[in-house]
UniProtKB/TrEMBL annotation, chains A, B:
Residues 285-446 form the Acyl-CoA oxidase C-alpha1 domain. The lineage of its organism: Bacteria, Bacillati, Actinomycetota, Actinomycetes, Streptosporangiales. Residues 515-643 form the Acyl-CoA oxidase C-terminal domain. Residues 140-249 form the Acyl-CoA oxidase/dehydrogenase middle domain. It comes from Nocardiopsis suaedae. InterPro entries: ACOX_C_alpha1, Acyl-CoA_Oxase/DH_mid-dom, Acyl-CoA_Oxase/DH_mid-dom_sf, Acyl-CoA_oxidase, Acyl-CoA_oxidase_C, AcylCo_DH-like_C, AcylCoA_DH/ox_N, AcylCoA_DH/ox_N_sf. This is Acyl-CoA dehydrogenase. Keywords: FAD, Flavoprotein, Oxidoreductase. It comes from the Bacteria. Coiled coil: none annotated. Gene3D superfamilies: Acyl-CoA dehydrogenase/oxidase, N-terminal domain, Butyryl-CoA Dehydrogenase, subunit A, domain 2, Butyryl-CoA Dehydrogenase, subunit A, domain 3. Residues 30-134 form the Acyl-CoA dehydrogenase/oxidase N-terminal domain.
Length: 661, 661
């Protein structure tokens, strides 16, 4: 529209393409497939549907997806799938046109089908998975109970084996043990993978999974199965969450998904894993894809929200510039607006690279391309937990910021932001409550720490110099040699340019993590001696959560650095370097109290970080549109009129009216 | 249920009563009236309504409210009101049973009626207000346009006076100038106070308000008035927001609300205020009640969300305590859970006192009990702007935190949190975008600063020692002598007990404000010399917003201190002192980077602040339930099953099932 825009558009389009190719990454073809398949009237975002209308629409969309190659991505070739773990994660995360569809896809093929795949025997897979893929057998993943969500080990639904009839009796002892919040249960599911305590020959073998039919062909609940409806929710109302109560429902012995535990006809229990606790966590570990996918889906919600808000902020004007000849200022030219959106944009980029790296590593392990040892696999599972927490909170915060940045227009359902925000909200809770996940990650970090340093009894083992690399704790995630080179080449303290030196930044986050984890280990050790373990861990909660967070920050930065290294386009790379600077320095700005308290930054230096964030906002502002275009989200999915030219059109008619008057 | 609970309940009830009396405060009778009137089937929170059902329900509720004393509170006795400004604010803020009703009440009697009252002549009030109060004339407040919301001075709807016919022609020149987001417009409004540029005799006199009929008795739009519907929104779907477009609509000369500007038959314009800019801001200033009420309403949303989450967290158990004999731990016994809810609870208390103080001061000015000079009135208006921003962001953040703290249950509409969160969201945008309001406040602080210190050209005027009190900038808001006494008696630095010394805390926040505002003044002055005023102000945005925020923090603390001083009950007072400590120290914790950078706290001291917040969480945990009960929100309004015993019942049946098995 004006002269200042033209150059951005010319150079921006090419750079956006280069960025998009980099972001699309290894599964670019899958992303394009989803872009191609999810279009047209059936998939257009629709605002203002009633819950029933929304559920029906999403069910129709799911049926349409079932006719594509998407459902097969994650399943083995033997049952008609593509055996492509990464593709299944990436396809899921792209379904932002309606996040209810995203979640419904995740429930059917990720959780329900994924549980049969991960926990079932070969025979069970061959029997059930073709129907699951084709959506002939719509199902649920019935793990959470009303009384126990986070503490899965204490689920209370029971499955008692009766050798006489060769059946299990699945039973809900009381309301606290009913299955709750179960997606696909209230309306569409015909079967459920039910997690229940397996009891046989008078012994409780802990939580196992059984495939239990819940509805007949006509959709009526089967005898003994009571199905409730969770009713309207804050978001995701296209997903039919429900409650399942089992009143002594009998299922055959073959209903037990038998990979990690089975019961012989006479009731004898056997498992390839002897230790019940290890068995349980191995079973849960196979379900890691859910967490990974949720983090990816949250990332796409953040991208979509930013695409809407940045486009609007780039077009919308408010207040005149003093001495500016009456021309009104674009929102994105205000520093306050930049500071709301651009650090969030930078973090969205950073998390994208971390997500991509995690998906690739899990894929290579699952497919056997680069199998991992158990320790490395456990590390990835912990990382998935931490990344899920950080990514979903980030997405929620970003969607909210974008809503506010669009003012009243951002509150209207037509502009997509309300739905994105409300939908992504529960991503912080499902597939593991974020706080609980961070605690898990912190415990894993402490275990690594103990493994590396042994018992902390003697004071000698816990003294560290700043900057010292603890190989045992800090496991570099990608591009190991590149990162080590950068760290080694980092300037010493006090260099004026160091704030934007990548090696310095890497070392700063690394040092923070080492110090935080080591300090936590010392603290728990000390406190553990004085009082009970619970009190010690509870008193240190803030420290615990912090250790997990700073670990994720460091891992994410390393993935970002590795991602930039893969970028062949010079212009795109220059831009990414700044985005990465903004990512790190806005993190440091947020946490500068810690850096000051621990004398990692002087007061002067901390103020310089603030100024650097300001400067980066200004430098990136002209490229904001390019950066969101690079996400490659079709206009059809964004759908928000304010992001698709409505504001520009209004300004033109206003200009016309003003010049006439 | 257990021994540990019994003592809390015995002492808690009495303390909760004492606290409630203090919180109910000066307009306790009004609060009780609303508690009495808003009950029963008609007012019960209802989840899952369609937009049309919700609008109809709220319209019925509004009609019921119209039959009570509530609408009259804010109007003068001459037109049948009570002339009780404070009562109108307090009644509004209590309507949390459905925030759509709260907003609809605010639109009809606060904004629409309030504009006629504030901007109309005596004759206009006498003519219209009785019908407004009785809801015979349902109306809208049509200020915001699609193209201009925050920048009200640039509204573009026109009102041209024609001496020939003695009428104004109200006109919308183009889509950017249509009235947008207008409450009561899409369905119910019959008239609107329309803000338009008044033009007569070839001269534009700026924005004025006219009373324009928009629908006939049958509810059909009048000729020339096009009424659109904003459709579904993130929340508040019981409010019928719409769009108004005027196509050369003629209204009589008497339609102009004439208190601050009128047009004679021949088209001569006159006003009691000569300066157009001062006139405009005087007109806006009379509308301050909207902002104040919104802050209060947001506060009640935060209270309701906390009441639900604290009650649930006090009952809900998850994970066993190692060595705890299998008993599961209550959520609120986890430090991480305490840290999510208790600082938010403390801030909610603090803001309640600040809100009460502001309402009382405005009331006393309006009713003439303690009239203010223009400077003091302007200060209150600025404070209202800042408090609105801080209170609404706090409420939004708190509602979200409470939702997450209740896990999946918090995501279900039945448990109220989704609606509270979604409704209060737009409170951060309407009645002034929060960021814009903080900028307004900061400008006012800078003006005060300039007034107090004159031109900043000479370096000599801008040198300050830490701790020096700038009387010109820091105007104590309440209990002036009490606060000065506390500050004077504060211990010096380094005293081990100082973190909980009120005088030290007051001085800390005061010092931060002085330093921040003085630094901002210097910075703008310096930058203003170097470049343009816009660039200078824009570059300093972060500093600008920060100045406003730290000002509000200090004002809120002083109000809290004054509030505690009014508390006659020793037990309640002891509790409040801790709540106040938690309020201040969690603020300091959040902002400890600043205190470190500016050498107000040492690293050791800053860590002690973290520990003090932890300790206060632990000390307040047993009283959390008491503190939320003291809000005096009837169970009927909370309505959430998880807050009303459902969780306890489930645990009892679970205990029963476990002891049987």
């Amino acid at each position: 529209m004006t002269d200042t825009e033209a150059p951005r558009e010319r150079t921006g389009d090419r750079t956006a393409e280069a960025l998009r190719a980099l972001l699309d990454g290894r599964w670019a073809g899958v992303r394009d497939t989803v872009r191609e398949r999810v279009r047209g009237e059936l998939f257009a975002p629709a605002a203002g549907l009633s819950m029933e209308e929304h559920r029906a629409r999403v069910a129709d969309q799911l049926a349409a997806i079932a006719r594509t190659e998407v459902p097969g991505y994650g399943f083995p070739a033997e049952v008609g799938g593509a055996g492509d773990f990464g593709a299944s994660c990436v396809a899921f995360e792209m379904l932002v046109a309606d996040m209810s569809l995203m979640v419904k896809v995740g429930v059917q093929w990720g959780l329900f089908g994924g549980a049969i795949e991960a926990l079932g025997t070969d025979a069970q897979r061959a029997e059930h998975l073709p129907g699951v893929i084709a959506l002939d057998l719509p199902g649920c993943f019935a793990m959470t109970e009303t009384g126990h969500g986070s503490d899965v080990q204490r689920l209370r639904t029971t499955a008692d084996y009766d050798p006489g009839s060769g059946t299990f009796t699945v039973h809900t002892p009381d309301e606290a043990a009913r299955k709750d919040y179960i997606g696909n249960a209230a309306r569409d599911g015909r079967a459920a993978v039910v997690f229940a305590r397996l009891r046989t020959r008078g012994e409780d073998h802990g939580v196992h999974a059984l495939l239990v039919p819940i509805r007949d062909e006509e959709g009526r609940p089967l005898p003994g199965v009571a199905i409730g409806d969770c009713g309207p929710k804050a978001g995701l109302n296209g997903v039919d969450n429900g409650r399942l109560t089992f009143d002594r429902v009998r299922v055959p012995r073959s209903a037990l998904l038998g990979r990690y535990g089975s019961v012989a006809e006479d009731g004898t229990y056997s498992s390839p894993i002897d230790d019940p606790s290890r068995r349980f966590f191995t079973m849960l570990g196979t379900l890691v894809r859910g967490r990974v996918s949720v983090a990816g889906g949250a990332g796409t919600a953040a991208k979509a929200a930013l695409a809407v808000a940045v486009r609007y902020g780039d077009a919308r004007r408010q207040f005149t510039r003093p001495g500016g000849g009456g021309e009104e200022v674009r929102l994105l030219d205000y520093r306050s607006h930049q500071r709301r959106l651009l650090p969030a944009l930078a973090r969205t980029y950073a998390l994208h690279f971390a997500q991509g790296e995690l998906v690739a590593a899990l894929h290579d392990d699952r497919t056997g391309e680069r199998p991992l040892d158990e320790h490395a696999r456990r590390e990835l599972e912990s990382r998935a937990a931490g990344l899920k927490a950080v990514a979903t909170w980030h997405a929620l915060h970003t969607a909210q910021t974008c809503r506010e940045a669009c003012g009243g227009a951002g509150y209207l359902a037509a502009n997509r932001l309300p739905q994105l925000r409300a939908d992504v909200d529960v991503f912080t809770t499902f597939e593991g409550d974020n706080t609980v996940l961070l605690q898990l990650l912190a415990k894993a970090l402490l275990t690594d720490y103990r493994d590396a340093f042994g018992d902390l009894d003697t004071a000698g083992t816990v003294r560290f110099a700043a900057g010292q690399v603890l190989e045992g704790v800090i496991e570099r995630t990608a591009a190991r040699s590149l990162i080590e080179r950068l760290v080694a080449a980092a300037p010493g303290r006090g260099d004026a340019e160091e704030l934007r030196d990548r090696g310095w930044q890497l070392r700063l986050l690394e040092d923070r993590e080492e110090h935080t984890v080591a300090g936590l280990a010392r603290r728990l050790r000390r406190a553990g001696k004085a009082g009970g373990a619970f009190a010690a861990f509870n008193d240190a909660q803030d420290h615990v959560l912090r250790a997990a967070r700073v670990h994720v920050d460091r891992v994410v930065l390393e993935a970002f650095v590795a991602g930039i290294d893969r970028c062949g386009d010079a212009e795109a790379r220059r831009l990414l370097e700044k985005v990465c600077d903004l990512y790190v320095l806005s993190l440091v700005e947020e946490d500068r109290a810690w850096f000051l308290e621990h004398e990692r930054l002087s007061g002067t230096r901390a103020k310089a970080v603030l100024q650097a964030v300001d400067a980066l906002c200004e430098e990136l502002r002209p490229h904001a549109r390019t950066l969101v275009d690079a996400f490659g989200l079709p206009d059809e999915w964004l759908a928000a009129p304010i992001a698709l030219g409505a504001e520009e059109e209004r300004q033109e008619t206003q200009m016309g009216a003003l010049s006439e008057s």
